[in-house]
Amino acid sequence: MNTDKIRNFCIIAHIDHGKSTLADRMMEITGTVEKREMKSQLLDSMELEREKGITIKLAPVQMNYKGYELNLIDTPGHVDFSYEVSRSLQAVESAILVVDATQGIQAQTLANVYLAIEQDLTIIPVINKVDLPAANVEKVTNEIVNLLGCDPSEIIPVSAKTGLNVEKVLDAIIEKGPKPKRDTKSPDLGHSGGYDRGLAPSARNDGPDGRVSQAEDFTRALIFDSYFDDYRGVVLYVRVVNGKIDKNANIHMMENNTNGIALEVGVLKPKMSPKNALNEGEVGYIVTNLKTTREAKVGDTVTLQKNPAKTPLPGYKNVLPFVYAGFFPVSNDQYKDLKEAVEKLALSDSALRYEPENSPVLGFGLRIGFLGLLHMDIIKERLEREFDLDLVVTNPSTNYEVVLNNGEEIEIKSASDLPDMSEVLEIREPWVKGEIILPVSMIGNVLNLIVEKRGLHNNISYMEDRAVIDFEAPMANLLTDFYDQLKSLTSGYASFNYEISDYKTEDLCRVDFLVGGNKIDALAIMCHKSEADAIGRDITKKLKQVIPRQNYEVALQAAIGARIIARETIGAYRKDVTVKIHTGDRDRKAKLLEKQKRGKARMKRFGKIDIPSEAFTVMLKRDDG
Fold it and tell me: Which domain CATH number covers 607?
C-alpha cells in the first residue's frame, strides 16, 4: 500500500481512563473483529491484564477504514510501565490523548503528553466517558486547552463504552495524522534519500507508488516488542522504517549481530494475519527461526543479510531498574526452571535485569531488578501462573552507590552486599522527582506524608480546583506503602508519577536481623540512621507474628553492627511434664522441670528454626495501627 494511505498511531492516557475500551470500539466500527468475537479489553490478552483491569503489555492491531490502513498500538497507563509507552511512541507518528471527563488530567496524563511532545507526535485530544452523570466536559476541556494550547473545537467528546463519536476520532487520525516518516538522516540514504522537501520530484527519483527508489537498496525495521512462542520460537513486533521484508528473507539483527530467517511475516488483526511482505511504513510481526531469547533485543534494528544497512535506527535508551528483590524457588530443584522462565520474560521486558544469588537460608535464586512494586508483583504472578513455580520473594530494596576509603566506587543491590562499615567512606541513595495531582483541600495531609518519607516539596501549582505538588524524596522510602498511604489520605483522588533524578550522599546504615542468634542476610535492610531504631522495633514485632513458635524460646533481634537496637521474644511451647504426678511433692516437680529445661537447652543448641516465606516480605505489610 502507498505510504500516503497508512497511519500509525497509539492511545495514551492515565490508568483507567478508557484506552482499551476505545480500542475495542475502533476495532468494532472498522470491522476488524466480528461482533460475535467481540469482548471487552480485547487487546489485553494476558490473564493478569483482564483480572486486574489494567494494560501491562503494549498490543498492536491493524484496521482498515475508508481505504486507509490504520495501525494502532494500545499502551499501558501505570507509571511502572511507562517504558512500554515510550517504545510505542517511537513506532508511530500520532497519538490519541484520552482524558476521563469525570477525573480530568492526572499525573500519568502529563507524563505521557511530555513523552509524545518529545517525539514530535501529532496529538489528537479526546474526552472520554462524557455519558456519565459525573462528567464535567467544560472543565476538562479547559484543562486540555491549557495543557496543549489547542482550540476547544479540536477536542473530541466521546463515549468509548457506547461508541459515541468514535468515528470522528478515526476521521481525525486520517485527516490530522501524518503519513509514516522515513529516516532521512541516515548516511545509508545518501544526500537525496528520503522525502527531501528541497528537491523536485524528478531529482528525488520517486517510484510509481510514491516511495523513493533508493530505499529499495536497504531495509531497516525497529523491533518495538517481542515474545517467545513455545512452538514457533521468537516472534518480533516491528515497524518497517525503510524498504520491505519478504517472507523467508534472511534477516540480520544489527546490535546483537545475529542472523535469522523471517519464516513468516504479517500484520495483527488482532490475530496473526500472514502476508508475502511487510512494506515500508507498516507495523507487523516477524516469526523467526531464533530459538534463544538473547538473539533478539527490543530496540534493535532488523535489516537484510543481502544489502544490509550500515547504521542502525536510534532504538531506545536502556531503562535501568531501581527496585531489586531476591526470587528463590521453594524447592532448589526448580532453580533451573526459574532461570529459564525469567529469561523468557526478559525477552519482551527490556526493563528486567537479573543475576544469580545464593542465600544460606533460601538456597540458590535470582536477584531481579524492576521499575516499581507493581512491576515486581506482575512478574511474580506471571512466574507462578505461567510457569507453575512456587516462589519465596525477599523484601524489595533499591540500589546504592558506595564509595570506599580507597576511592573505589561500587554499586550494591541489597543490604547484604554492603562491605564492612570501616571500609566505607560514604553511601549514596537514589532520589526521585515526583509529581502528585490532588484536590486542593487535601494538600496539608500529603505534605505531611512527604515530610515523613524524608522528602522535600519544591513547588505547588494550581489548575482550577486541583493542585500539582512537585517534590523530591529518597526512592527507598517510597518503595513499600507510600502509594497506599497517598490513596488513603486523599480518598483515592490523588495520582502520582515519578522518575529517578540523582544519587545523594546520606547518613545510611545496614540493619541486620537475627533469629535465634543467627544473622539472616536475606532480611537485612538499608535505612537512614534516624529511622533505624523505629524500623528495627517495627520489623521485629512483625517477625514475631509470622515466625512460628518452637519448643524452645527464640530471640528476634535487630542490630546495627554489634549494637542490638530492638528485641522481641517468641515464647516456647510448654509441655506440662508434671501432669502425671499425683502428689504435691515440690522436690519431684522441680526435678522434672529441671530435666525438661536441660532438654530444651540441648534442643535449642541443635535445633533449626523454620522461617516461613511471609517473613521475607514483612516490610510490605501495612501497620494497621
Answer: 3.30.70.2570
